[in-house]
Amino acid sequence: TFQHQESAEISNQSPGHFPFTRGLNTTSNDWSNGFLIEVKNEQVANKKALEVLMKGCDLLLFDLSSSTTTNFKTLFEGIQFDYIKTQIVLANSDQFADLKAYFKGETPTTITFNQDSNSFKSNTALSDMLVSELKQQQRFAIQINGFAIQQAGATTWQEIAYCLHEGHSAIVYLMENGLTIDEAAACVHFTVGIGSNYFFEIAKLRALKQNWASIIKAYEPAHNCSYNCVITAQIGFMNKSFKDPYTNLLRQTTETMSAASGGVHAIVVHPYDACSSNGSSNLSERMALNMSLILKEESYFNQVIDPLGGSYAIEDLTTKIARKSWASFQQLEQNGGFEKEETKLHFIEQINQKAKLRLDELQSATKIVIGVNKFPNPQEVKTNTFISKTSAFGLNSINFETELIAVK
Q1: What is the model's pTM?
Q2: SS3 labels along 75-115
């Protein structure tokens, strides 16, 4: 199908203006280059953090959820937070108190939190402390984890609908606890997954910005910056193969290109084998960090804002995904949201159906994915097993290579 002028509904949009499909930034398309560190041993995590910082990382993501107490002096040794952005997942209120004590009550503004919106309300002690802190100084604290939904097999519009509903619930919760709409909007940020369908992923990001701006507009914010949809894009594992690392690099590159062209604020390329039983290799980690560096320093993706804006095909896709996700979001709201068990289970079932459909396509070779169901690496590769991680609602992340092996 060829797109033409009549295919897309294009209004006179420019960066920094409603409906913010092209984003809020008007100066550049720069993004942070992130790396995730799961903290199980503070000394090991600190060594890894310093290592990746020397290799071009400028955003550290510390996941502290697997430990109850953390020695922040050891973990943060040698890290200059005046220059390094950091996102932290806390496990409990004690960690938050220890963090504040380490910084003597004045946590640097470069540090934000990734408290999943699903667990934020249930962890009462931590949420109360964070809300009290946010009333004094706003910073991103509640993460809307669309990446987890995407890795479980959700479509673009299902992922956006989830983000919109959870984001709206977080905004309402913060306002009920005394924050204004402008203050609440400054405390919510999004994490999305990026798949292999290049143009769909770009349009998805643009549609999320547009729909989020529509939600914020309903509350009549006083400041233009409240419309900002801050997005961290994560390149995951669903279409990666342990047996074909070089094809993985190609997929990671195009997916990073999608995220950059869609105008995200940060990109985290997970090493393709990070969820394997053997763990990530030094090469896969280095290549993951190099994706953003090459696209910035050699291809100048950070210089052009919304480079595909105005393209008939992209504008048409953006409109269709925005409308479909908005309709799904409205249905979730009308049915009581995820706090209602029936609505939650129905949403889970819809995602599981899409995941099964994708697996069936691979199994029957209706869809060819090199290294997964076609042209496997002829060289002998060490045995490696995918370790599925629990995501939102108890949905597990999937890896089609592993799923196909299990079927066989």
Answers
A1: 0.94
A2: HCCCCCCCCCEEEEECCCHHHHHHHHHHCCCCCCCCEEECE
